[in-house]
Design brief:
This protein is α+β, with helices and mostly antiparallel strands. The longest helix has 20 residues.
Amino acid sequence: MAVATPGPATQQARTGARTLFCVLGVSTPLLHAVVSIFKGALEGEGGACALVVGNTVSDMREGWAASGAGSPASTIFTSDSPDDTTVELFSRAGARMIVAVEDFVDAAIYLRAARGMSTPHALRFLTQTLSTLAPALTGGQALLLRSRHADAPLESLLACLFDFIGRDAIDVAAVLRRIGAAGEETLRGYAQTHFPFREAEPPPADELAVMRALAQSYQPLLSGRAMAAASWPTELFLDWDRPGDFLHGPVDLTGPARFIVCGPYLHLPLGRWRARFLVRIADNWSGNRMSLDIFSHEVLAGVAADLPAEGLYEFDVGFEVSSAYAPLEARIQIQQGAIEGAFELVAVDFVAEQPGES
């Protein structure tokens, strides 16, 4: 199986007599299958293996303490939504990290079906996971298992896993029996057998189009490359005049000073970014003033400007993402009451800035 491997593995992370491993990824049958197979393989090769599931360092510490009974020879930490501190901790500890990621759209469809999420919530969860995993996905030290590896035989996967962790040759047949699989079975086949799910109904065409549009921005991470740019579909932003409704065309400015557009509560990897908002103004004959800020627990950056009577205009603002786990919200408001006018959010794009750029 051709897998993008990180080169010479670092020394195995150990605490006491236990060897630590880390399996992270997007919540899909692929991740669940990799955890199951790896755990079964370790148990067959070297004694008991504890499984600790959590998203924060606190979760992991509690799970670690609880897993001590029976003195397992190894421990697998796993998460489908680790926060930034957890990913950093495993990287610093030198734990062998395996990251399993599925096709973006397939993962979003799975989250809809398996967790009952709406499309916007599934995309928020998915961009959160990928953004927090970005250092592991792009750092070159983790074993990255992607959709294209899912059709390789399990024998190849096991050989790859054990080569990555620096273990000697294993009894593949015995491991396959332990996990209830056949040698010619693929990772995808194993996942479908042991972690089946069924989509109640396919996403509507317009929601599928939004999934595909957003997928283009996060695709580099799935290939082990840094995200250089992103575009967020305007359909994911909320019309603040209509609680719970998403944007559908222009917003009527008539009314008091207020927030008019907020959202979309998606995520970006750590680092400095520059956002560009392209807007269209119409019939704003009395004039007004607009402010726009980027919010994530606090205001990260903002800009304000007088609105013209009509036309297509661009606003840009730079900001720092210090927590990829925290959602980002763009908040657009008019600062004066209006008796006429229309506002349309046309496009929202981001470009990653290099250190020192502003």
